[in-house]
Design a protein that fits this description.
It comes from Muribaculum gordoncarteri. This protein is an alpha+beta fold and 326 residues long. It is built from six helices and 17 strands. The strands form four sheets. It has a seven-stranded mixed sheet.
Length: 326
Amino acid sequence: MGVAFYNLENLFDTINANGKYDLEFSPQGARKWDSDKYWKKVNNLARAISAMATPETPLGPAIIGISEVENRSVVEDLVKAVDNRLAEEGRDPWGLQIVHHESPDLRGIDVALLYNPLYFAVENVTAHTLVIPDNPDFRTRDQLCVTGSLLDKPMSFIVNHWPSRLGGQDESSYLREAAGELSKHIADSLWTVNPDQGVIVMGDLNDDPFDKSCAKSLGAVRDMKKAKPHGFYNPFWRVIDHGVGTLSYRGKWNLFDQIILSGNLVDGEDVGLQYWKCTVFNKRFLRTPSGQYKDTPLRTYSRGEFLNGYSDHFPTEIFLLREVTE
């Protein structure tokens, strides 16, 4: 059972619906964002997602969290493009369903959840706004909590896009620390209702696993043996330790795109689903083929030039086992 996350890097439509904030993603804007470029990006992203099928998961990930989407309409276009891609390849459609919520983010970008109804049934959806007491005008993406049954097991997914490092990593850290605290508060509330609830926190956290927001505020540990049932284990901590990341900045790899699981999914006894493995989905076609940025994510634009790429982030995925093992 696969659970994935993908930052889609500015999946905007071509309509300037948010004033100056999305003007650049319009035909009149700096990027000359027209229908041709839009559909190239949508179809490229569909190729990436459809390629995430494995021998163990032939219908792809059961759950895909996504970020940097402008509205529900662009997500609907993406889902249709995934099924079109599968049909072209002679594969069965996945029929992904959508959970989307409009956030107060100034740029107008949101998070959303895609799910395969063969595996997951939605029971409840809530959105949680990050409030910064000393900065009441601060706006960012809401945290989207989707609760339901994954293969008839109780599971909640908290989809995130935490505040950026704008202004400096250290100077902005308090914002992401607050976001980590909010995710932990949401999880604690879920466990109050059902102590056996599995909880997965996923998203572009704009921090690495060892940063304070993840390791302290959320409390996600590196060693799965130290993860308490109502705590968190971060399998991607060991991945970044080996120099593998999801985005590259000034020649340095970061792993901001994380999927963090509650401790009760480590042994799986109470939930009925158990963590198996994780991966950064960095297939060759998603990488820049040559030059200074070789092997980094092949993004849509670079220095104002349209590259006809995918995203400036690689997707990530974890796998869960239904049969709990010793």
